[in-house]
UniProtKB/TrEMBL annotation:
Keywords: Signal. The keyword Signal applies. Residues 1-26 form the signal peptide. InterPro entries: Protodermal_1. It comes from Triticum aestivum. This is Uncharacterized protein.
């Protein structure tokens, strides 16, 4: 009797694991089939194996809207000439930023950072860099370029200020179009 219960438990775990892996690899289709397909019959949503309109796709993804740091670091759109990718953060935001980020960190490297969970200063430079690019390229972005620079420098005074400003930049980046 005990071995039968153990076998059932293992079977349930195996079924859950397989269904999770299938969902993560985009194996399931959406109801309706044609939702989300791109024109021309191309594969939509990054699905693997030619599956069209896969859902839910990758279960754990980061925001990749048209204004996020991930978007700007992907090279999907050309950066404005006034803030080239290879420009140093200390040159763009001013010498006060050099104490926290050093003289060699570039804007591209700042937007590519993935270690922003633990440090509010890392999150600040990541989302501040994206906000600066958005200020130059997106009409209707809630911050002007000079505001982004000033707010980032003001937020360097403490971890609390950096965390609060990084959150504001992140919200602006993720909500712009």
């Amino acid at each position: 009797m005990g071995s039968m219960a153990l076998l059932r438990s293992l079977a349930c775990v195996l079924i859950l694991l397989c269904s999770s892996l299938g969902a993560a690899n985009g194996m399931y289709r959406r109801a309706g089939g044609a939702e989300g397909e791109e024109a021309g019959g191309r594969v939509a949503g990054g699905a693997r194996g030619g599956v069209r309109s896969a859902w839910p796709g990758y279960l754990y993804t980061r925001a990749v809207g048209r204004c996020t740091p991930q978007f700007w670091s992907s090279g999907a759109e050309q950066w404005p000439n006034i803030v080239p990718q290879e420009a140093a953060v200390s040159k763009v935001f001013g010498s006060r930023s050099m104490d926290k980020y050093g003289p060699r960190l570039t804007l591209l490297e700042a937007t590519m950072r993935t270690d922003d969970v633990g440090s509010p200063f890392v999150k600040l430079v990541k989302h501040g860099s994206a906000a600066l690019i958005n200020a130059y390229t997106r009409t209707g972005f809630p911050f002007d370029s000079w505001e982004v620079k000033a707010l980032l420098l003001e937020a360097l005074v403490s971890e609390d200020a950096a965390a609060a400003q990084a959150e504001r930049f992140q919200q602006a980046n993720e909500s712009c179009v």
